[in-house]
């Protein structure tokens, strides 16, 4: 019998999406086939402490901000834990594995930094590489890559925190000159709608920029539209496949953190009710977006479909999409008959293929 493949699942992390990562990892850990894989659970606390062992998941759940923990978080078994130190400290140790599975959303997990470390140690890892992860995390760089590939993106502009601090009214004037209300204001480096606001007038715009500036030095301000939210899962390496599109019906006016994870009222419609032509368009655009950032493994590509004129806009690529049991990414593949555990196997195979 061949030795089992040692898979280290990394989760948690220091970003605002720490709690979402815990729930995504919980599902991945539950689905990994223990006949095939020797699984190492590696949690990273909000302050950068690495913890492994059977009790690591329970430990991170206990330490999490309970108000932000998605309601789909289940109970986790307690068990022994090993402290691996704080990254960068003298006692920090990288847990040994044959392959790493980062299930971390947001900065320092999904932005290419962790991927760079895994490249340096020369081990395969699940998901996008350094460049795709970095582009996918930074909404300003992502838009630049999409625009260069000729992909349809909404009018937008970038503001630096320093510009805001030195002359707020110049920033407000520029936005009002180039776009019209409502606009969406987003920290360049975030996800899960953390720090994102809709601004309907100058007062809200000022508040929104202030909020976003608390999360990042760079702020993206985008033309707001009355949109249907369409999402496609992409799976593969150089010849990716696109799933059927799904639609999100947010519980609120737009898809904020609360609607995504907390109030449980958002609905998903799979497949989205779209004409065959629009379906084919979003699938083509999803694959092009994936290739435009040099994606690998998986990504979820999100669209805004204008209700007023039917125009389709590419919103963003998520290189580590939500992977919780209620997340769109696995559900879209389930609609094509791929079980969650098969999806995990496929992602591991893709990581090894890319490494080879
Ligand atoms: N330009 C826009 N027009 C209308 N709604 C938007 C726009 N940009 C974002 N939104 C709403 O805000 C949500 C979060 O924005 P998004 O860019 O997807 O950030 P995140 O990376 O945090 O998911 C979207 O799902 C959508 O509901
Ligand atoms: Mg989004």
Structure notes:
By secondary structure, the chain is of the alpha+beta class. It has helices at 18-31, 56-63, 113-121, 130-137, 139-148, 161-166, 168-178, 202-213, 257-262, 276-292, 328-335, 340-355, and strands at 5-12, 37-44, 49-52, 82-86, 99-103, 156-160, 183-187, 197-199, 218-223, 227-236, 241-242, 246-249, 267-269, 297-306, 312-318. The strands form three sheets. Strands 10, 11, 12, 13, 14 and 15 form a six-stranded antiparallel beta sheet that branches. Helix 4 packs across helix 5 (139-148). The two termini are 23 Å apart. The model has no long low-confidence stretch (mean pLDDT 93). It binds adenosine-5'-diphosphate (ADP) and magnesium ion (MG). Magnesium ion (MG) binds at residues 302, 316.
Which descriptors would you attach to this protein?
356 residues; 6-stranded antiparallel sheet; 15 strands
Task: Please write out the topology.
Blueprint: E1 5-12, H1 18-31, E2 37-44, E3 49-52, H2 56-63, E4 82-86, E5 99-103, H3 113-121, H4 130-137, H5 139-148, E6 156-160, H6 161-166, H7 168-178, E7 183-187, E8 197-199, H8 202-213, E9 218-223, E10 227-236, E11 241-242, E12 246-249, H9 257-262, E13 267-269, H10 276-292, E14 297-306, E15 312-318, H11 328-335, H12 340-355
Parallel strand pairs: 1-2, 1-5
Antiparallel strand pairs: 2-3, 3-4, 6-9, 7-8, 7-9, 10-11, 10-12, 10-14, 12-13, 14-15
């Amino acid at each position: 019998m061949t030795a089992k493949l040692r898979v280290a699942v990394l989760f948690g992390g220091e970003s605002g999406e720490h709690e979402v990562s815990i729930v995504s990892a919980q599902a991945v850990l539950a689905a990994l086939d223990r006949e095939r894989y020797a699984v190492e659970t590696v949690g990273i606390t909000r302050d950068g402490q690495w913890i492994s062992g059977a009790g690591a998941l329970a430990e991170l759940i206990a330490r999490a901000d309970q108000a932000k923990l998605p309601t789909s978080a289940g109970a986790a078994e307690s068990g022994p834990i090993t402290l691996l130190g704080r990254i960068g400290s003298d006692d920090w140790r990288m847990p040994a594995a044959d392959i790493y599975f980062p299930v971390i959303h947001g900065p320092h997990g999904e932005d290419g930094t962790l991927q760079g470390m895994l490249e340096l140690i020369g081990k395969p890892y699940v998901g996008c590489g350094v460049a795709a992860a970095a582009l996918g995390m930074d909404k300003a760089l992502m838009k630049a890559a999409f625009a260069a590939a000729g992909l349809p993106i909404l009018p937008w502009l970038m503001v630096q925190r320093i510009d805001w601090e030195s002359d707020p009214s110049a920033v407000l004037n520029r936005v009002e000159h180039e776009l019209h209300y409502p606009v969406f204001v987003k920290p360049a480096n975030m996800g899960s709608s953390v720090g994102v606001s809709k601004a309907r007038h100058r007062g809200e715009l000022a508040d929104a920029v202030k909020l976003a500036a608390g999360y990042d030095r760079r702020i993206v301000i985008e033309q707001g539209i009355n949109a249907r939210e369409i999402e496609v899962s992409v799976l593969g390496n150089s010849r990716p496949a696109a799933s059927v599109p799904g639609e999100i019906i947010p519980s609120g006016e737009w898809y904020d953190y609360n609607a995504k994870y907390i109030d449980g009222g958002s609905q998903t419609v799979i497949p989205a009710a779209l004409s065959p032509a629009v379906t084919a368009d979003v699938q083509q655009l999803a694959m092009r977006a994936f290739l435009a950032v040099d994606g690998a493994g998986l990504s979820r590509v999100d669209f805004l479909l204008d209700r007023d004129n039917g125009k389709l806009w590419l919103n963003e690529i998520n290189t580590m999409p939500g992977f919780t049991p209620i997340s769109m990414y696995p559900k879209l593949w389930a609609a094509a008959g791929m079980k969650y555990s098969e999806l995990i196997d496929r992602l591991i195979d893709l990581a090894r293929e890319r490494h080879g």
